[in-house]
Amino acid sequence: MQGAFFQVLSFLQSFRWRILLKAFWKSEYIKYLALLTDSRMRRQVDVWGSWGEWGECSRSCGGGVSFRQRRCYSQRTEGGSSCPGPARSYRSCNIQSCPEGSRDFRAEQCAEFDGIEFEGKKYKWLPYYGAPNKCELNCIPKGENFYYRHKEAVVDGTTCEPGKRDICVEGICQTVGCDNMLDSAKKEDKCLQCGGDGSTCYGVKGNFDVANLPKGYNQIFIIPVGATSIHIKEVKPSRNFLAVKNVRGEYYLNGHWTIDSSRALHVASTVMHYDRGVGGDLAPELLHARGPTTEPLLVELISQEPNPGVQYEYYLPVQGPSAGYSWSYSSWSECSSECGGGFQSRLVFCTIDNEIYPDYMCRNKPQPDNNRTCGRQACPQTKRWKTGEWGSCSATCGGGTQTRSVYCAAFDGQSAQGAVDAAECMAFAPQPPSSQPCNTRQCTSWSTGPWSECSASCGEGVRTRAVTCRTQQGAQAQPLACLLEPRPAATEPCVRESCAHEIGWHVGDWGLCSKSCDSGIRTRQVICADGDSKFYSPEMCKAIQPQKPATLGSCNVQPCYLPQQVPSMQDTMGYDVTRQSLLTRYNPNNPATGFLSPDSDDGRMHPGTSVGHGSSGNHHNQFEDHGTNLLPVRWEPQSRSLGSRQLGFPGDLTARRGSQDCHRSPHGCCPDGHTPASGPLGRGCPFGTCQRSRYGCCPDGVSPAQGPGNTGCPQYYSDVQVSRSQPTAAAPMVTHPKAELPLAQQQPPGECRASTYGCCFDNVTPASGPQGEGCLDRPSYRK
């Protein structure tokens, strides 16, 4: 019994030691001690320790990478180790596809630098795939033409190129099998079947070798829906270009003579790679895509020289889409929002045989979605300064201050979430100013000068003064600088003493022109009178106003192939003989009353064109002192613009005509001596009454003669001695009325008006021809 007990005890003790020895042997330390005692350690051979646990996956979807590490143990005293093999082991993880509408993983990494100042500017960064190293984080600013390497390596699991499976691991592009596993040997066939043998699809290959094509865009073939493993390449380099568009005519590549650089483009729900080669036009162009395509694609050749040939290859399923109409759709558009929820859209249309048909033709088949949500990931919260509107300036000029609110706000990518401590924004950008100077321009105001003399020598006129814009220092400024203040008046009316008894020249309207073209002559009435309609000797007016207004002027100076400028004796169109004739006081300071330029609206001429004045001023013609066709006049109210009075004939011809003695009427007699006036100053008197009187008109054309030989006419007319000057083509001269006249002129006044060719210039002698033939000293007309 005792012996058995000791046998059991001995067995348990040996079993216990064996367990302890086994556990001790499993420890890394005892292994190390054992290796130290091994003969090979004496030769300093390094060894690996055990692998550690797998780390966290680099991505949550779309194919990430995780790794584990092991340690190299060495006896080397000089440092370093030489364990064979890698210290890390990698494997694929989270290979499931990301949700529809998710953002590109490389684009997310570039977006981390959005809004961060780069060389003095802030940009929105997009992925750039054209750099030689596909695993560097190269980004291009939106709208710019340069790219920048933000990181030496992208995050593990980032695809090397868009549309391909290979991913970057530790900055190196690694092969990924069609099962989305690292270092997998599985490959997909041309039909995109993983591990397939290519039996589910058939190839379509060809060579478009038509050499002579029209210049421009030429369609060469169509890639149908469902095509996979697409490969298109020029046989030789040329100056021609490949182009791609859809059946609606919208270009995806090289459209409208705009040639793109090498890039990857999303078309027909796949990624098509366009490669022009590093040699530019000297390298053959290449197009390749994995597929399958979801819409027909039209491939064109932009011909600029003979075509060396374009080879193409793609594969279609053996069991193609069911016969009849089917839905096709384009690639999704960019997401409307990068985070916080956005939308994408695509075109969905009904097709058959690569042609578009109305949607109802596909009504028996389920229609794919044409929009979807995207960018649903939460936007990162950012801090940035928020500013309000600038307030009003504290001063209108001379320098003021305006302020605004400035505070630090938190944003979630969609809107501001509220104010936070200013220090959180100071870490990203300096605080914007909350005040600024304003209205720094100098203060200005209107400055006025002294009033000038009144423009009228009598009666009402106008006076003026200078109005300028000046600074506070007195310097003159532009008028725009004073626009904020009302501008003082630069003119105002003024009144001088009454013009009633002031004697001066009065001029009437111009008469008919003697010719309708090629320089004619016309006259007007010029008299010396005062404001009470009293006539005076011309010498009295000359003493006051030495420059007598012209009574004769040229007219219708235009060539005869042009229409006349003013009414003439040959064509009286526009000339109203019954019109009111005005006698206006002549103001030497205002040319309108005495001198009229040739370009005036009524065709009157400047005094420089008038004729009939002698050089000495003592020679004057019949029209100056005894102007013909003088009209009855009356005084009009005082002029406000020139301080002068106008004489005119009233349009009212309803004067009472009766046997009543006009001298007993309230307003006296008309100039004819027997018609009573209906108002003061000859109102209501008939037109041209002196011409209808028994003895006709006096030489002034207004007063009726009381007997033959100008009996009863104003005395000064019979005393004026008019010298005869030599007649010229421009100024026909006649003798004084009291001188010896031809028998033809000794006819009763007005009788010439009934003749065939009217009166001569004396308004007495009848003319015997249309241009004054038979008249004394008639002007010679130039042809």
TrEMBL record:
Keyword annotations of the record: Disulfide bond, Repeat, Secreted, Signal
Main location, first listed in the record: secreted
* Location of the ADAMTS/ADAMTS-like cysteine-rich domain: 123-201
Q: Where is the signal peptide?
A: none
Which residues lie within the region annotated Disordered? 586-626
Q: Which residues form the ADAMTS/ADAMTS-like Spacer domain?
A: 204-317
- Lineage, top-rank taxon, reads Eukaryota
| BP terms from Gene Ontology | extracellular matrix organization; proteolysis
Which cysteines does the record link by disulfide bonds?
Answer: C57-C93, C61-C98, C72-C83
Q: List the GO terms this entry assigns under cellular component, sorted alphabetically.
A: extracellular matrix; extracellular region
Localization, per the record, is: Secreted
Annotated GO molecular function terms are:
metalloendopeptidase activity
InterPro entries, per database record: ADAMTS/ADAMTS-like, ADAMTS_ADAMTS-like, ADAMTS_CR_3, ADAMTS_spacer1, TSP1_rpt, TSP1_rpt_sf
Q: What is this protein called?
A: Papilin, proteoglycan like sulfated glycoprotein
Query: Which species does the entry assign this protein to?
Result: Nothoprocta perdicaria (Chilean tinamou)
